UniProtKB/TrEMBL annotation, chain B:
Gene3D superfamilies: 2.40.50.100, P-loop containing nucleotide triphosphate hydrolases (3.40.50.300). Residues 7-235 form the ABC transporter domain. This is ABC transporter ATP-binding protein. GO terms for molecular function: ATP binding; ATP hydrolysis activity; transmembrane transporter activity. The lineage of its organism: Bacteria, Bacillati, Actinomycetota, Actinomycetes, Micrococcales.
Amino acid sequence: MSLTMALVSPAQGADGGASEEVAARRRGRTGVGLLLPGAIYLVAFFAVPVLALLATSLYAPVPGGDVGQYLPALRWENYAAALGKFWPELLRSFWFALLATVAALVVGYPVAYVIAVRARGHRLLQGVLLVLVVAPFFTSFILRTIAWKQVLADDAFVVASLRWLHVLPDDGRLTATAFAVVAGLAYNFLPFMILPVYASLERLDVRMIEAGGDLYAGPFTTFRTVTLPLSMPGVVSGTLLTFIPAAGDYVSASLLGNPTTTTMIGQVIDSRFFRVLDYPTAAALSVVLMVVIALLVTAYVRRTGTEDLL
Amino acid sequence: MTAAPALELWGVRKEFGGQVAVDGVDLEVPEGSFFALLGPSGCGKTTTLRMVAGLEQPTAGAVSIGGRDVTGTPAHRRPVNTVFQSYALFPHLSVLQNVEFGLRRQRVPDARARALAGLQTVRLAHLADRRPAQLSGGQQQRIALARAIVNNPSVLLLDEPLGALDLALRRAMQLELKRIQAEAGLTFVHVTHDQEEAMTMADTVAVMNAGRIEQLGPPAELYELPRTPFVATFLGRSNLVAGTVVEGSGGVLGVEVAGARLQVPADRSAVSDGPVLLGVRPEKVRLSAQGEPPPSGSNVLGPGTVTDVSFTGVSTAYQVDLGALGVHEVFAQNTTGAPTSRPGDTVHLAWDVDFTFGLVPDAAAAS
Ligand SMILES: Nc1ncnc2c1ncn2[C@@H]1O[C@H](COP(=O)(O)OP(=O)(O)OP(=O)(O)O)[C@@H](O)[C@H]1O
Ligand SMILES: [Mg+2]
């Protein structure tokens, strides 16, 4: 909309030259034409499904009908019922996603820093390191999570070493724990953290770091007052790209967790839809998940002052 | 005057992977002086400055600030501040926060008030809330200056701070810098490749070439008595001729130049026998028409042919072709209302023996 207006406005400023107006209108039409494929795609694959989801979340069971038979309705109680029953899984999802995001940031920021700042000028080294960062994408998400299951298994070396170091008690284990789920989430979304942080550190002018040192800031203070603030856009996009998919993830929790204390909302939605055939509850939970994420993201972006990203 | 020099360098050397950028520099910058480091691009000025700031570690030698050896001290513990060639203002902070930055790191109690006072010094207090990106180049330059001087450093390092400005702004900023230096009583080390800038601003100029200091002294002294062919041609212009010392008596050396006999005061010559390069500044030279007897105590070269006359109003520049001795320049003040010679005229060049200087010939002087 704004694009078309911008394209048309120059002609409005001119004193009504007919040919100019025609040209402007043609340019306006070109703009609309260029937007059309994207617009159609969004309507078909985003707007329609979201509306369908909203509608489904308000369906009512067919009176006396079979399991999985519903009628269009405006049954708002679906939301109260879904939240009343599944609020622990919903909260746990956000909690796990938060932990995984923090873990990915703590691990990913230094990696991005080394690639973008320390390896600057060594193009080959930078290239190799970046390929290593994205290398996990060459294998499927599920395979990698299954591999993690092996790594964290009771008889694998990680648990053995941790027991030996007395970090874990002798009967302690990692599989089927919250730790395993969060670690799996952090691992799976790590590249989504590293790449945006790398992109913003890559643009960082090292003379800024030197200027910090020149103005009496030690290495840590320079990091806190100069480097980190200047890489904030990357940190914000990285945390969003990690947090949002992690909150809705169900692969890590189902493969690395246990059925009682690590269930995430994605698993609930999955089983409501495909096993219990309770479509309205699944849809209501999906809507809640979307709305809460949208609210959290907006608040977060406002706080960090990086509105330009949205 | 008895206090230790603000800055001393002893045999400071810097190599980058075997390539020598700074080749054994010795310097002494007195407290409160305006010191200029002048040299062509790539001669090692920035590298020298960075070693003083602590942003680069010398391969050999020592740096001392206010009598304290700081060679191994990291940048943030050195009492120096830099105005960077590219300003390097923090884009995420306001102008005021930029200026306050160093004061806050040092936990100065009235940081805000002092930062505002610093902005007043550079006359930009009204821009305190802007971001650096919203300022013009000249304004950014002044903010970078304010950000450095508010910390009252023992030495303020300026790396071609006026390089990016247009000529008029450059001149204005040169005066402004001198005013601020005088008011604050700080020691300035100013890097530039503009010889006019170095001469108008500094008390002491060090001329640097290929990683070495060629000569160091007050601007007038460097100009009147250059000691190397590089200084003679980089700092102002010079007419140079190669000759051989043939006699020396009474404090004056006699030099044979292409059949002619010239003289140079012995204390103005770096050579007392053998090959010598004689020089004189173009504005010291007079043109004398053929047959006109030269005043006594003059060196005379010629005859030659005037090949070009450019009248600039204040003065006239003549190019005179002396054949085997090459083309020489003469600047004449416009005291008579019009140029006195025209292209094609046959003339002699004459100048006072006392303005002559003698240099060690080197490969570079051949051109
Ligand atoms: N980090 C570096 N790595 C390798 N060589 C360098 C480095 N920094 C400077 N040099 C080299 O050292 C020499 C001196 O550089 P320097 O930047 O000190 O010159 P400068 O006198 O400041 O020049 P300019 O007037 O162009 O700024 C140059 O030949 C340069 O290529
Ligand atoms: Mg430089």
